Amino acid sequence: MSMTGWLLLLLLPFANLSAPEEASSSPDIRPEVSMKVLSCTEVVGPDTWLVLACTFNIPDKWHIYWKNPGISGVPTEIRVEGPDGFVIKPVVYPRPQVIPDSGGITYGYEKEVTLLVPIHPPATWPDQPEVEFKVSADWLVCRGACFFGEAETTIRIPWLVPAEQGAEPPPLKPWATTLLAEAYWPRPLKRRPETTAKIVDSRLIIEGRVSQVGKAGFLPDPTPGVTFGEPVHTINDGRFVLSVPFRVRLADTLGQPPLARGLLTFGDKATMPVFDVSVPINVSSTNDSSVINEKE
Fold it and tell me: Which of 33-37, 116-120, 141-145, 260-264 is predicted least confidently?
């Protein structure tokens, strides 16, 4: 799969930050989480795409969190700083695991996970042999006890101007081709045939063909001020319907347009297919009981 093709599907040398050590059997001793950063291509050129792969290695029985941690936890975050003209896109998270917690459900990753940072270079760049990016990350690692962690590194990637205009973009490295083809990267919902999402009477309604992979599910990733209830799953004539109730507290939206957003999942394993869902919520109707105009 080409770099451009992969990015459209999503909508659109190693740096070892801590030496791995044997994980402690005691949750009271800080576990060593490490992060490595790779470029998915050998070089970067003008007006193409670059993707940084940030891989976290997590000690056995510990976990870090998805961008929506769930009932508790803190999102794992990556920040990339690059030269002027390079557009840093939002981090792409793979489908998380559902991790039971004493207070409810959390979402995260165990053992190893790779997060992706797409970057779009400018059409022109000064005559320099390399492009430098500073990559930093923060996470919370938990197993009973929890510890904050952070890492920072710099990665340099050769800058190569094609010999002629319209040349093919730099190819993906073999390992990156395999990585980006995995089913656990969220795809746009419109790429799943006969599958739709809409708002009906304070509910997010997702419907489509039943998958042979497994039962449809929903992992919430709401914008500020939006909270979801438990999804209701039904099947009729080979089609599933997921009905997910939600509420909007206008005072907590932070000025952002509220979205019914999350992941449509199939099967119960984090390696199985997943699709992005994002539907604007119309809050103009004050008669809608799901819209709370004042803090309770």
Answer: 141-145
Which amino acid would we find at residue 230?
E
Instruction: Return the CATH number of 3-180, one of 2.60.40.680, 3.20.190.10, 3.90.1150.10, 2.20.25.90.
Output: 2.60.40.680
Mean pLDDT in residue range 200-214: 96
The pTM (predicted TM-score) of the whole model is 0.87
| Cα–Cα nearest to 34, from 94, 95, 142, 111 | 111
Per-residue confidence at 296, pLDDT binned at 50, 70, 90? very low
Q: Tell me the CATH class for 187-292.
A: mainly beta
State mean pLDDT over 182-191.
97
Alpha carbon distance 214, 272 (integer Å):
9
Mean pLDDT score of the chain: 88
Rounded distance between C-alpha atoms, residue 216 and residue 81, angstroms: 38
Q: Report how far Cα 216 is from the mean position of its chain's Cα atoms.
A: 19
Enumerate the CATH 2.60.40.680 domain ranges in the chain, comma separated.
3-180
Cα distance between residue 147 and residue 175, in whole Å: 31
CA atoms within 13 A on the CB side of 289: 3
Q: Kindly give, in sequence order, each residue whose CB lies less than 8 Å from that of residue 244, ignoring residues fewer than 6 positions away.
A: 203, 204, 205, 206, 218, 220, 228, 229, 230, 231, 232, 260, 262
